[in-house]
Every structure is written in structure tokens, then in C-alpha cells.
Amino acid sequence: MFFFKKKTAALLAASILLISLAGCGEEEKEPYVSPDFSNESSNNTEYEPNKENASVTDATYGDAELMYDAEPLDEAATEEIMASATDALEAGAYGDGIYYNTVAGFVINVNETDWAFYDAAGVAKATGLTEEDVNNFWYGYKTTKDAETSYCCIAYDKNTGSNIIVSYVNPSVTLFPEITSDEYLEMALGRYENLRVKRVKFMGELWSCLDIPADQNPAGRRVCYAKKSGDILVLVTFTMQDDQELSAAQGLFTRIR
């Protein structure tokens, strides 16, 4: 019974991140409600991914875009960012249209683009949290140990409503602490048809990836990248609307050396 409860909690957590936050680029949307989700799908029970063979060469949906690899920052720029991030918290930091995250090792730059970042009130509204919840994490009064999911930033395209969510999942809260990024994304497979978790190259590193086509997701194409950083899962979730290309969002990312 204990195992069943833990497994159900794991499935619920994975599904929330993958099917919620559909309206992050739109105004006056109601916060999401946690979905009714179970582990009874035949797709989920029959699926056994071949992790040994999964690689950047066998992604089946949107290969060219999933292979997109942002160039790392040059050494001088990296040193400048790291110097300014000396006191950076887990949530990362913003400045002049740039969000940098030293835990995940990347920068998101929306300067001179149609993209913008939500402030704490916007993130709170989109996720169903309170503004205090968001600020407590952003300013270090709470850490990833205090919540199952912590939202670092949300960027959105002002024209299309496409969005990017950077978040952390702490598996030790309700999941198994040893869970891998592959296993976390696999928990949502029962909701979809003929999908697999792949290993793809993003910003020079291998990430686990679940690419959900628009015909299986009402909010549009959703691509979730996940990797483990210590005990924490780092998730970068793209939701693309109005047939906007994934590369338009990925191009905002630059890896910190």
C-alpha cells in the first residue's frame, strides 16, 4: 500500500508539470487544477524504453529542433555572469532582460525580442501559488527542500502566448529520491499515444526529453527537458502555440561554461 501511494504521488507530480501552465502567455486565465491521473493505462504498463540505446540520434519527433545546441558563452562573458551571480540563489536571478541560473548552468536572454518574463505575481497566477510562495523561493526564504515543485521563471512570447517554464522538482518530498530524469518523464506516458522519452542534446549536454505533439495536447506542442542536478530534477518546459517553432524559444538559451 505504501508503494502504491508513493507511485500515485509520483504520477500526479509528473502529470501536473506536463499538462498544466497552458496559459502562461495569456491574460486572465484561471490557475490550473491538479488533474485526475492514474497508472492504469496499457500504454504505460507495456512501455519499456531501451535506455541503453536512447541517444541524440533516435529522436522521432522534430529531430532537427530537438538537436538544437546553443553555443556556450565565451569565457569572458561566463566570468562576468559568474561574478554577478556570486550570491545567486537556487531560483537564479534577473537583470536587464536576462535570467541566469547557475544551478542549471544556463542563461535566458529576452533582450530585443518579443519575449518577456513574468514577475512573481504573474508566476503565482499561472501556477496557482501565492505571490508570497514565489517570492519566498526567489529570495531564498525557502529552498527546494520546502516544496515538491519550485518555479524559477516563466518566459512568454507576447504575440503567440508560447511559454518557457524553468522549475525544480525535489523527488524526496513525495517521490523516490533516487528517481532519474528518464523515469520522471516516463510517468506521464500513459496520457499519450506512441510517445517515448528520448535523450537529446540541449546546450551541449544530454537531457531526457518528452516531446508531445500539438494533436495530443490542447495547449499546443509541449517539449519537456529534464536532468538531474544533485538530488534535484531541473525541468525546462516549452509550450509552443500558433505553430511557432521550438527553435524560437530554444534560441533564447545560452549555456554557461
Task: Give a short overview.
Helix content is 26%, strand content 25%.
Please tell me about this protein's structure.
- The longest helix has 18 residues, at 2-19.
- A seven-stranded antiparallel β-sheet has the order 4-5-6-10-9-8-7.
- The protein is globular.
- Strand 5 (149-157) and strand 6 (163-169) form a beta hairpin.
- With 257 residues, it is of the alpha+beta class.
- The model is unreliable at 1-23, 26-73 and 76-86 (pLDDT under 50).
- It is built from nine helices and eleven strands.
- The chain starts with a helix and ends with a strand.
Quick tags:
25% strand
Straight-line distance between termini: 45 Å
**Tally of extended strands?**
11
Order of helices and strands: HHHHEEEEHHEEHHEEEEHE
Radius of gyration: 17 Å
Task: Enumerate the strands of the largest sheet in spatial order, edge to edge or round the barrel.
Answer: 4-5-6-10-9-8-7
β-strand amount: 15-25%
Helical region count?
A: 9
Low-confidence stretches: 1-23, 26-73, 76-86
Question: What would the principal axes of the Cα set say about the shape?
Answer: globular
Query: Biggest sheet, in brief?
Result: 7 strands, antiparallel
Residue share in helix: 25-40%
By oligomeric state, this entry counts as single chain
Which structural class is indicated by helix and strand composition? alpha+beta
Q: What would the average pLDDT be, to the nearest integer?
A: 75
